[in-house]
Design a protein that fits this description.
340 residues, alpha/beta, Rossmann fold, six-stranded parallel beta sheet, two-stranded antiparallel ribbon, 43% helix, binds thiamine diphosphate
Length: 340
Amino acid sequence: MTTLPVPVDEAQPGPRPTDLDADALLGLYRDMARVRALEDQVVDAFNAQLIPGSTHPCIGVEAIKAGALSTLRPDDLVLATYRGHGECLLKGISAEAIMAELMCRTTGVNKGKGGSMHLSDPSVGLVSTNAIVAGHIPMAGGVAKACQIRGTDQVVLCFFGDGAACEGEFFETLNMAQIWRVPLVLICENNGVAISVPTALSQATPDIADRARGFGMPADVVDGNDPIAVRAAVGAAVARARAGEGPSLVECKTVRWERHSAFSAGGGDPGEQRLAWQRVDPLPRFRAALTAWDVGDAATLDEIDAAARDEALAARTAAEKAPHPAPESIHEDVFAPTAP
Ligand SMILES: Cc1ncc(C[n+]2csc(CCOP(=O)(O)OP(=O)(O)O)c2C)c(N)n1
């Protein structure tokens, strides 16, 4: 059996997908490049002490974000983890509003009061990112149930890690979602480690997909560093959900960025971990495929990279200039009723 994800220098582009024209294929690459450029700036801004607390880059998993979100309608809904800046960007939150939120500035998508792990913009269908491991999985089940009750025809995507798939609420959600046939697609980014614990020590079976199958739920395992494979599996799951056929799980095998977060070492040798994710880096791999398919030459792809870097730099520059929330604004946007 092939170990996934496939290394860049061993990956075969395969036949060009027939359901995507050149613009759509370049669009997928652009989405991945925009996420990478934003996260590169985030790490840099963190190192410059502009981002308080910590932040969890999704560098190296851009193919999952781009492939999965490319299957959605604008009114579909997404819930993600602290490693979810990519979902926020691709669902439609501007790079500037994300960066400003991470720097706790008033121009942030949540007015600088949420920070790196608590981004939300219902107007674009990004319900929330969440710092509590697996905490958002039952929430996503509830959101999908609400869509079903209201008959909105929306589909909900829920992203989470392999560590989250060891939490009880993951299993509870699988069960209830399958009983109620809610329009939910669970996307597990299996990067083989939860902070410092490898899945070999925390999981009785290698594939998280088997857990979903145990509840009678359709589940696929794909190379998470191949946006076309992710898109195909998530697209099929979204179509099933939209047709009223209930939830699915897509397990995307991938490799974590060199540290758990920008702040912590996250176990292991960062040098070795850097090599590990770079060996399977989805961006050069997809670049090679696009070139092999005659979809984009080096100049076109370089232009996309440069535009993505410009966007991220402009976002950072603007965010740095924005003010922090005033102390007296602390009681604004609090939804609990005030005492009489
Ligand atoms: C309920 C809960 N337990 C523990 C933590 C501390 N914690 C933060 S991230 C993390 C690892 C999660 O790993 P995984 O789900 O595989 O996602 P990854 O970070 O690898 O993307 C842990 C244990 C937390 N935030 N919430």
